[in-house]
Structures are given as C-alpha cells and as structure tokens.
Amino acid sequence: MKELNWKTCSSEYIHKGNWATLRRDVCEMPDGRVVDDYYVLEYPNWVNAVAITDDNKILMVSQYRHAANIVSLEIPGGVIDDGELPEDAIKRELLEETGYQFDDVVLVSTLYPNPSTANNVCYGFLAKGGKKVNEQSLDEHEEIVVHEMTIAEVKQALLENKIPQALHSSALFYALVKLGGL
C-alpha cells in the first residue's frame, strides 16, 4: 500500500490562545517534497449530545455564533476541560447549559471537525432520561435559550436545514439512526 503519511520536520507557534492556537509546520511528503508553510489550528476537543429528556423531548439550544454572525439552533455541548473524560464533560455541559441531569450517556460518534487544518476531535453522545434539576449555569459570554422539541420537530428542522452547525446535524443523524428513527 502506498505511504500517505507526512513527516513533520519542524513546528513554530504563531499565536497561542485559550480557544485557538495557530501553528506553522514544515512537512515532508512521502515522495520527498517539502511543504514549507502548512498552517494548523489547534483547538481543544469538545463534546455534544442529542439529549432526550425523561418525557421523550430532545433538548436543543439557540445561541449567537459570532464568526458566522448567526443565531444557531444546536444540540448542547462544549469544550472538554483539561484532564476531563468526554463522558464527564458532556454530563457537565448538559447540566450547565440546560439545567438537566443525564446519567445515561452513550458515545455515538467521534469526528474531526476539519482534519485538513484543525487538530481537534468532537465526541458525540446520545443522552437519555434527562431530568430538570437546576437552572442554567452559563459561562460569562454565553446566552443560551433551551428548546424542548419532539423527535418529529427535530427531523423537520434537519430537513429544512434549520440546524446550521455541521457537527450538530451529523450527531443528530447518528443518534436518530441509533434510535431507529430514520
């Protein structure tokens, strides 16, 4: 089989930030050609979940996304903290963003958001049996509206392209397939 892996010859950080880091790599391709300026965005890994409450509603959230200048209908999720397991991160994020506690979470997808330029992984979960136990506990720059939607309403939103975040749409498809809903 033909070798496809590149060798990283050197790396240099251009910007280091809490949410994104930009690095310039010099790489050697398998045939010996050198790529002098390959830019890589380093992001933290994150989680999201198709979260189904104990009364069979899917929790969706709306929030402003500045880079795209849109209010986006999404599934709940967020960044995995240092040293945190993905399963623990999604339980924490669900509680913070929605006020619902979920004990039954199953990994349904492991996706690379953009493996050509970014190095992070997104873990998608199916969470079932959620119960409202708290009010939201949002981060300083978060403003999130929680929606309880039926499975039929979520399917319709997908069909009408009303869920613009690609990873969230794919996680919904994975979960609906797992539930036997497609």
From TrEMBL:
Catalytic reaction(s) noted: GDP-alpha-D-mannose + H2O = alpha-D-mannose 1-phosphate + GMP + 2 H(+)
Pfam families: NUDIX (PF00293)
Requisite cofactors: Mg(2+)
GO biological process terms held by the UniProt record: nucleoside phosphate metabolic process; ribose phosphate metabolic process
Gene Ontology molecular function terms on file: pyrophosphatase activity
Nudix hydrolase domain location: 42-171
SUPFAM superfamilies reported for this sequence: Nudix (SSF55811)
Alphabetical keyword list: Hydrolase
GO CC list: cytosol
Keyword Iron: no
Family under the similarity heading: Belongs to the Nudix hydrolase family. NudK subfamily.
Protein name: GDP-mannose pyrophosphatase
Protein's organism: Mucilaginibacter ginkgonis
